[in-house]
Structures are given as C-alpha cells and as structure tokens.
Specification:
heterodimer, A: about 425 residues, mainly alpha, D-Maltodextrin-Binding Protein, domain 2, B: about 260 residues, alpha/beta, Rossmann fold, 4-stranded antiparallel sheet, 10 strands, about 25% strand, globular
Chain lengths: ~425, ~260
C-alpha cells in the first residue's frame, strides 16, 4: 500500500477542521482539560472543607455519667467548652437509644479503676459510646478524647509537681514530629500523586471521541465510502486518521498539564490548608520535555488501540461501547501506582504504567535516562505492534468496507485464529 | 490494449455469506463503454449492479477477471483508477461539517486536480450548479436538494473522464430526479463516459445510449435500445427486460 504525504496532509487537515466544528470533540478535547478537572478538583476540595467546617461548627450533645463522684473538675471543663452541650444525665439504655436515633452524640462513662498496689491515686477508666456512622457523633467522640487528653496532661503535670520530677521524666518519652520535607518537595509529592492520573485520563478522553468519530462515526454518516472512493490510498487515509486522533489525544494531555500546573495552587488550596503544611507547586523545567514526550507516546498508543477497537463498530454508540472497557483498563493501573515508589526497568517495559511512572518521577525531579529510554522503546514497540496488527486487519475487505459484523475479539477468533476468511480477498488499496 | 475508457473482462466477485454461503454477486461479466456515452446497467434490486460499480470504483476488489478505467487496471493501480473516476452513490454521503466550498476544495485536492486551476474550477462549479447562495454553509444544514447538487459537483470537481452514478435518482422527488437526468445529459455532451445504474425503466429508456440488462450477477443483454427492441420484438423496455430475465430473450449478449 502506497503512502502519499500530500494526501495524508489533506485528509489530516480535513479531520482536524471537522473535529473543531464538532461540539462534543471540542468539549472533551479542549474545554474539559482546561476547565473541567481543575474546576472539579477545586469544587471537590472546597466541598469537603465546607462539609467538615459545618460539622465543626455544630455543638456536640454529650451526656456525662461520673460514677467516681470525684471528677467534678473534668465536668466543669466540659461545661465551659463552647463546642460541648453537656446534657442532663439519663440511663445508659435511654442514652444509647438517643445516640442511635441521632438525638444525642455521645455518652461518656467515668468509673473508678480497679484498685491495685501500683495504681496512682485518682485513677479512673473511661468509656465513650458513640455512633461511627454519624459524622456528628464521631466529632463528639473526638472532642471528648481531646478534652480527656488535656485533662490527663494536666493531671500528669500535677503529679509530676507533687513527686518533684519534670514532665519529661514523669512521662518517660515524648513524641515530637518534625517534617523534613521542604514546601517544594511537598508540592511535588502532591502533584506526582495527582497529575499522572489526570494526564492519562485526559489523553484517553482526548482520543476517545475522535477515534469513534473518525471510524464508526464515518460509517454511521455514510462518509466512509466517500473517503474510500477518493484517489488517496487506503493507507494514506488511515494514517491521516490515526495522526488526527493521536494529535487530539496529545493536545488534550498537554492542555490539561498546562491547566493543572497553572491552577494547582488555587485548586489545591483547600486541601493544603486542611493538611496544615506548606506546599510549593512548581515542576522542574527539565521535567517538561520528558512529560511532553510521555504524553505524545501515550497518545500514539491509546489512539492506535482505540481506533482499532472502534473501527469494528457501525455506529457511534457501538464504537463507544467497544472502546469503554479499554478506557477503564488503562485507568485502573494508574490509580494503584505509588508515585514515590521506585521506577524499575521492569516497570519501564509495561505500557501505560511506564509513562505514569515517568510522569511521577519527572515531577519529583528524578529523571532516569535508562528508564526514559526503555519507556520510549516500549511504547513505540507497542504502537508498532498495534499498527502492524491493524494493517493486517485492513487487508480484509469486509472489514474495510464496513460489512463485517462483530467485534475485534470475534474477528481475531474467526479470521486470525481459525483462518476462516470471509471471501477470497486481495489486498485492499 | 482497448481504446475504450472502460473495459470489463470476465469480472467476478464472490462473497461469503454466513447464511447463504458462497454468493456470486458478479459472475463473469464483460462490457465496454465508449467515450461520450451513457451506459446503463439495468437490473432489479440485488442483481449485482452496485457490486459491479463498486468493483469499478475499486472500493471492492475482484475475485477474478479484470477491468480497466482509462487504461488503468482496477486491481493493480486503484489510485490511478479513482483519479480518473467520479463515483456517486447513496452510500457516499458528504462530510457534514465542511461547507459546500470546502467540500469542493477538498475533493479537488485529494483527487489531485492541479493546484493552480483548483480555485477556478471550484468557482466554475459553484456557478454552474447554482451553489452561490449557500456555498459557505455547512453541508449538514443544507436541504436534500442542495446536498444533491453539492454531491454531484464534488463527483466531477476533478474533471474525471469517467463518471459512475449508482442509482442517483433513488429517494429524489420528481423535480430533483429530472434535474439529475438533465445533468447526466450535459456530462455526456461534454464527452464524459457515464456508467449509470438504475432499476427504473423509463429513466434508462430516456437516458442511456446502450443498456446492459443484469440479473443474478450476469449480463443477459447489452445493446442500444433499438437493437434490443429488434432482438426481442418488444417495444417497451419493461417488456424487453422481463423477456430476458425470464429467459425468453432472443440472443444472450456477452459484450457490447
């Protein structure tokens, strides 16, 4: 089959022009990567913060059952706590019933600890009843434990003073936490967790509609045969379509990357405030070409597979159904990849996983030449394999003219494994 | 080599159908088309007309036999064949997201019409087919009559010497069908060779210089209407057609 660059360019320009006039392609390839994910993330984090804030603002309805009769100072703490609504005592059964019904948030029972020779004076045991399935009740438990912790610290300090020892000596050892990561490292960690996932999703979304539109869509609109009746060779037409799908996938990925980088600070602000750490969202300059390369490689691979799958469909809807399982399959491994885990040469040979790891490593400023080269070779090899397979299928005339009914799997079983051909066919050009 | 623009020799196409098994859609047909004539393929639905035309347009590949368009063999030089051919059928719709002008520009370019003359050719066809008022409108917003004109214009935009029209009047109203017939006549007058398939007898009678009656993938007769009348003794094409299809024809023609 002959390939004419002029024809490829003509068809490619036509496909791009037509795509930019199709609302669903423009939305999925350009607008969603720019606005949708940054906005979705911002909305999600803001929503979480808002809900948490709402629960935080509510007073916890608590019943105290002091069976020791000696902890009036602790009771006074709860009375003075503005976030606690200490209610009149009631029976345990009644209180538990109210907790389950959501009319009460927690019951705290204070009982004298079993006496022993080494038991400190005034020791007591605490039991908190709450409903974990209710945010407000869980919040009440947290507040009670916090109040108890503060009361215990005070009690320990008093005991230390009575025994004439320091707090450190009395407590044995104290845990202090110190995060040694810089704000830049924290920012990179957060970006390397999120960006690779969004990039893969966006490249897949960017390829999805064009792949269906340029194959099944053409058949549905009866323009497939129009293209086949032009003087361009079949290989020129298919090459143009493939390049068009890969281009839109790459564009979607790169636009999303730029949008996420520019909006990361604002989008992630609610989350970073919640964590209480400082984050600096800056990607190393050297990472950009590596990520661009990864984006293009991934787009070439995804475009090839999606076009192969969708080309068996006769309608747009059929095409979507044929591609969706692949779409899910490429997103799943990305979800489970640890961004801070090592990037091994073995991983560099696994498609999708390798590019995801490459993204994560690049964002963290750790560009490994060997793994980058292995990723490049592995992805290119996959693309070549898929395209070779596609060119073999194109040789089947009924597939090419769209009269074959069935999926890729059925086709492989019937034609390639059983060697049962639909008709004596020559090479289709 | 034959001097005819279209030469078909023992052309055969066999399909495999899951339900029916092997189907000989086109069964060893032979004919030639002369310059400046309308050659009609007349047959009932499923007779093999469309398959024959799709073979000539290289959309399908032949099982055996050969055909040449302007000297180019369909199996060996399909791109050259398509460059010398304009193919119009119900299954070759227009690209809906291009404007009428963009459509003509695209087909002129992809069919390798000379760059230097392309704009002039497109403008000429816009004028000739009366597309001026909607030339910049997207094709999917045009009426069916407008689409038909754009579709014919895109078929001839690269000025091919051979035109194939596969049942071009199916689905058209009377006025549009008449207009289509008129255009076919004009193309003939310009010296184009036209292969035209139909199952409408009156259309074939009115338009075709020679008619091939095709049935079950075989050509049963191929001649001028007058010759067919003389051979069968029937006046009307409908009667002639029925006589051949029922095997009552006087002579079985192999080639025209």
């Amino acid at each position: 089959m002959s390939l004419d660059c002029r024809d490829v360019a003509t068809f490619y320009r036509y496909e791009i022009r037509a795509a930019l006039r199709e609302r669903s392609i423009v939305i999925n390839t350009l607008l969603i990567p720019i606005f949708m994910y940054p906005f979705l993330l911002w909305a999600m984090f803001t929503g979480i913060t808002y809900v948490m804030g709402q629960v935080e603002g509510l007073r916890s309805r608590v019943v105290l059952d002091d069976q020791t009769g000696q902890l009036d100072d602790f009771k006074q703490r709860l009375v003075k706590d503005e976030k606690c609504d200490l209610q009149r005592p009631r029976t345990r059964e009644k209180a538990l019933e109210q907790i389950k019904a959501g009319d009460l948030d927690a019951l705290i029972e204070l009982a004298l600890a079993a006496p022993g020779p080494k038991s400190p004076p005034g020791n007591f045991s605490v039991r908190i009843y709450f409903d974990r399935s209710k945010d407000r009740s869980e919040q009440a438990r947290g507040r009670l434990e916090e109040a108890l912790g503060a009361y215990r610290s005070q009690w320990l300090e008093n005991e230390a003073a009575r025994l004439q020892v320091t707090g450190e000596q009395w407590q044995g050892f104290r845990i202090e936490r110190k995060n040694v990561a810089s704000s830049r490292q924290m920012g990179r960690f957060l970006l390397s967790t999120m960006l690779p996932l969004f990039l893969v999703i966006m490249i897949a979304v960017g390829c999805f509609y064009p792949a269906v539109d340029s194959t099944a869509g053409e058949r549905e609109r009866s323009t497939w045969e129009t293209s086949m009746s032009t003087a361009a060779s079949r290989s020129s037409i298919l090459t143009a379509k493939y390049l068009y799908v890969a281009t839109l996938g790459s564009v979607a990925g790169l636009i999303n990357l730029a949008a996420m980088m520019l909006s990361a600070k604002a989008v992630l602000a609610p989350l970073t405030q919640q964590i209480g750490e400082k984050f600096e969202f800056r990607i190393p300059f050297a990472a950009l070409p590596v990520m661009a390369l990864g984006t293009v490689l991934l787009a070439l691979f995804i475009a090839a597979v999606m076009m192969l799958l969708a080309s068996f469909a006769r309608t747009f809807r059929e095409g979507q159904a044929m591609i969706t399982p692949f779409y899910m399959a490429i997103i799943l491994p990305v979800v489970f990849i640890r961004p801070d885990g090592p990037f091994t040469p073995q991983q560099a040979l696994i498609p999708i996983v390798n590019v995801t790891k490459l993204f994560a490593q690049a964002i963290n400023g750790d560009i490994q030449i060997l793994n980058t080269i292995l990723t490049l070779l592995s992805e290119l090899a996959c693309v070549v394999i898929v395209l070779r397979f596609a060119s073999m299928i194109v040789g089947f005339e009924d597939f090419m003219i769209g009269s074959y009914r069935g999926s890729l799997v059925k086709f492989v079983k019937e034609r390639l494994l059983k060697r049962k051909q639909a008709a004596p066919l020559g090479e289709v050009r | 080599m034959s001097d005819y623009p279209v030469t078909v020799t023992n052309l055969t196409k066999v399909f495999y159908d899951e339900a029916r098994g092997e189907v000989r859609a086109v069964d060893g047909i032979s004919f030639e088309c002369r310059p400046g004539e309308i050659f009609g393929l007349l047959g009932a639905n499923g007779a093999g007309k469309t398959t024959t035309l799709r073979l000539l347009a290289t959309i399908l590949g032949p099982t055996s036999g050969s055909a040449r368009i302007m000297g180019y063999e369909i199996g060996q030089e399909p791109e050259e064949v398509r460059r010398n051919l304009g193919f119009y059928s119900a299954s070759t719709a227009l690209y809906p997201r291009l404007t009428a002008r963009e459509t003509l520009q695209f087909f002129a370019r992809i069919n390798h019409y000379p760059d230097s003359a392309r704009d002039a050719r497109v403008n000429y066809l816009i004028g000739r087919f009366g597309l001026e008022s909607y030339v910049n409108a997207r094709v999917d917003r045009l009426s069916s009559g407008m689409k038909q004109k754009v579709s014919i214009a895109r078929t001839v935009v690269h000025d091919p010497p051979v035109l194939i029209f596969d049942e071009p009047t199916v689905g058209l109203d009377v006025l549009n069908a008449l207009e289509m017939q008129q255009m076919l006549g004009e193309f003939r007058n310009e010296g184009k060779t036209i292969i035209f398939s139909t199952h409408i007898m009156s259309e074939a009678e009115r338009l075709c210089d020679r008619i091939a009656i095709i049935h079950s993938g075989k050509i049963l007769a191929c001649d001028t209407l007058e010759e067919l009348r003389q051979k069968t003794g029937c006046r009307y094409l409908e009667d002639i057609f029925i006589r051949y299809v029922k095997g009552e024809g006087v002579t079985v023609a192999g080639a025209g």
